[in-house]
Amino acid sequence: MKNSAQENRAVGLTQELASFVSKTSYRDVAPEVIRRARGFILDGLGVIVAGSTERGSRIVQDYVRRMHGAGEATVVGAGFAAPAAKAALVNGVSGHAMDYDDTQLSTSKESVYGLLTHPTTPVLAAVLAVGEREGISGKEMLLAYILGVEVECRVADAIDPRHYQSGFHSTATIGGLGAAMAIGKILRLREDALLRTLGLAASMASGLRENFGTMTKPLHAGRSAENGITAAELAAAGFTSAVNIIEAPRGFFNAMAGGGDASKIAGRLGNPYFMIEPGVSIKPYPSGSLSHPAQDVILDLAKRHDLRPDDIESVVVGTNSNVPNALIYPMPQTALEGKFSIPFCMAIAIAERKAGIAQFTDRKVRDAKIVELMKRVTLVVDPELEALGYDQVRSRVRVTLKDGRVVEGRADVARGHPEKPMSWDELGEKFRDCCALVPEIRAEEAIGIVADLDKLKSIAPLIRALGGTPKAAKRPGKRKWSPARRK
User: Fold this and answer.
1) Partners of residue 407 on adjacent β-strands
2) Confidence band of 116 (pLDDT split at 50, 70, 90)
3) Which end of the chain is more exposed for a tag (fewer CB within 10 A), N or C?
4) How far is CA 428 from CA 366, 444, 452, in A?
């Protein structure tokens, strides 16, 4: 039984989130947070561009294209505009379609690395769409993105891990809360409206991990972005909801996970920002993040020892017990399944010495030589690594060769993790690789714009570099969403 002091503390969680978003201005955010945010935004834009070419993204593009509505925001890589919420839906799907978007870390060993959220895609897809419609500045874009990611990451970090382990996909369920707060900031909602925005977004939250390896997983990110916009715009118009949705007995934490740790939110918002500590990891490979340390190891071993498929007797990948719970395909049949398959990730790395966009295709997953090599790969729980906790995806790879030699290596984190950060130049290379799939994108121009995003009076040049023709952004300072100014 909670005492009255505990009750009063718990009741304030939703209020604390809304108050933080309402009161934080651009000048309150440290330069290092701004610097990191620019990198995450560049990375997020790149994976949206690349993902727009995926079949699942094309299906959603066609679905939205058939709808009637104002062309308010650019659908990246598709050559048309749509109502802001629907543009966010499509761009959110694209951003997660290749499973190439960034990953939130955890603040404690009890939490599980990679099983929290992909923080950028839902927030960025929403901010890009509404930002284009509203004609916001670069500073407004940065602030909305930073606040949305902070709320998303803190809530995901605080919810009981049972949320994910029981089957909810956190990007689907919690990404919408971050997107909602980002849009609330753009629309200049007052604190009471932000409380209602959270109540709405929490009730829209859904998404199940059984859909990993299918087109529905990226749909989760798109729906989060769309729901965030819908929640903020309904609240702006006066729509009502519960105002204690995070901590209420029948609210988000209890209903979705049986509880949460209030201390991971209370007093911690922006103190420091989650982007700084524990951080966000950028993906070096377009696959499930829990495979990445092992991919780093196998690529290094393959190059250092000149490993060839015909040389391999067996490959054993040891890690903690949460990894098999997410990398669920021992013999994948599609590229989407291959993104969640240790055997495929190991086999393709040995065969091609690469693990980029070109490697994760249906054709390569089904290639007879790759299939044969996958049969020699085993994923096991390593007792030593299991005992170290789940905050990192510590992975050990042991390769036994047919001539009897054994080569092995271990990695606790992968390239792109805050302990092994990518430089701006490396982020630029990943961005260029992503944009090569869509010739209409002006990659070099976009890189330069994001580097100086805080100097833009309007994000219109960025939208144009991404292939759009922003109408709203030609009228900076004029807000199209009038209820935001009234509520």
Assistant:
1) 399
2) confident
3) N
4) 31, 9, 14
Closest CA to 112 of 263, 378, 290: 290
Q: How far apart are CA 124 and CA 386, in angstroms?
A: 34
37-56 CB burial, b ≥16 within 10 A, e <16:
bbbbbbbbbbbbbbbbbbeb
Q: How far apart are CA 422 and CA 283, in angstroms?
A: 10
Residues 6+ apart with CB under 8 A from 430: 43, 46, 282, 284, 422
Q: What is the mean pLDDT of the chain?
A: 92
Q: How far is CA 111 from CA 44, 163, 223, 389, in A?
A: 24, 11, 25, 9
**Does the pLDDT of residue 244 top 90, yes or no?**
yes
pLDDT bucket at 471, cuts 50 / 70 / 90:
low
Tokens found for residue 227? 């729901």
3-state secondary structure of 400: strand
Round to the nearest angstrom and report the end-to-end CA distance of the chain: 38
Assigned token pair, 67:
């709808």
Whole-Å CA distances, 106 to 209, 265, 341, 390, 448:
19, 13, 23, 9, 31
Q: Which two structure tokens, joined as six digits, stand for 426?
A: 């490396």
DSSP collapsed to 3 states, 472-487: HHHCCCCCCCCHHHHC
Q: Over the range 426-460, which residues count as b (16 or more CB within 10 Å of their CB) and which as e?
A: ebbebbebbbebbeebbbeebbebbeebbebebbb
Supply 439's token pair. Answer: 């010739």
Which residue carries 């922006």 as its tokens?
Answer: 270
The answer to whether 290 touches 106, Cβ cutoff 8 Å, is no
Q: For the chain, what's the residue count?
A: 487
Domains in the chain, please, with CATH? 4-283+421-486 (1.10.4100.10), 289-411 (3.30.1330.120)
Q: Which helix (H) or strand (E) holds 401?
A: strand 395-401
Write the CA distances from 12 to 236, 245, 260, 424, 426, integer angstroms. 22, 10, 14, 39, 42
